[in-house]
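User: I'm putting together a small comparison set for a docking exercise, and I want a reference complex before I start. The sequence is below, and the ligand is adenosine monophosphate. Could you produce the 3D structure with the ligand included, as structure tokens?
Assistant: Of course. I'll restate your input first, then give the structure tokens for the complex.
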Amino acid sequence: MSVLIVGSTALDSIKTPKAENPRLLGGSASHAAVAASFFGPVKMVGVVGEDFPKRYVQLYERHSIDLEGLQRLQGKTFHWSGEYELNMNNRRTLLTELGVFETFNPQLPASYTSSPFVLLANIAPSLQEHVLTQMRKPQFVVADTMDLWLNIAMADLLKLLKRLDGFVLNDSEAKQLTSEDDLFPALKKLHKLGPKYVIIKQGSHGSILSSPQGLFICPAYPLKKVVDPTGAGDSFVGGMMGYLASSKGGVDKNIRRAMVYGSVVASFCCEGFGLQRTDKVTRAQVDERVKELTALTKF
Ligand code: AMP
């Protein structure tokens, strides 16, 4: 089954303590779509401007991503720039140039509206909801978010949450949204806002799922060297949704394994700038790393 992914399609200029790389292919939808493409068909909705390089379109095509929903408008592609500290868990945004993203109105081609799995990757919650209103009875809808929307679009986010099956956020966002420092009271509040499945990402410490089946602790793959963690969260949720869409037996049967696959794809993402490493990875390498992670966490 296919997964529909909507989010940002961006040019990312990234600075780490060791190197600097301008105008890489980035954006929440780009990272999530490439991650999901290891497992099955992906339909992507986004917007790019006239400056969007052809080689990035070719990268999407290499991963067989359906681009019928990718709008090409006059103007500049969304440009985001971020800088990492020595501790790469800490990042600050240097620049956000919205370009064509400012007037983005995601419109689904007819062939997209019956996708059973929907990932609303990080964009404004009002746009995420606008996509949902165009869908015909999706089976499983998950959204990701970021601190910016908690700060400037909380009412929209609360409205969206009521329509979701799953919600993915990182631990600092969970604290901000619920005003709870501890996991259990935070999870209780998050479920009350709507989603049955809540996943809290903890960066290099993995992630936690809370669902009707209880808790699951998903490990992160231990990396010897992190080059650039940009897009790791998007790769995690994209990989998870791609795996779920390709699996038989329903969400409850597969979601734990799907998270482990997402975690492994995210680990590859961190090993290169932007999508440079993920672009070169094969499904066999993903499967091999899942085996390693399984062995590392078996007791
Ligand atoms: P992550 O590292 O998972 O937080 O994702 C980083 C990606 O988010 C980058 O590729 C950026 O292009 C994208 N991004 C940054 N700011 C925004 C924003 N305001 N809306 C949507 N996407 C964004």
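The pocket of adenosine monophosphate is lined by residues 8, 10, 12, 26-28, 80, 122-123, 148, 230-234 (CB under 6 Å). The chain has one domain: 3-297.
User: Thanks, that's exactly what I needed.
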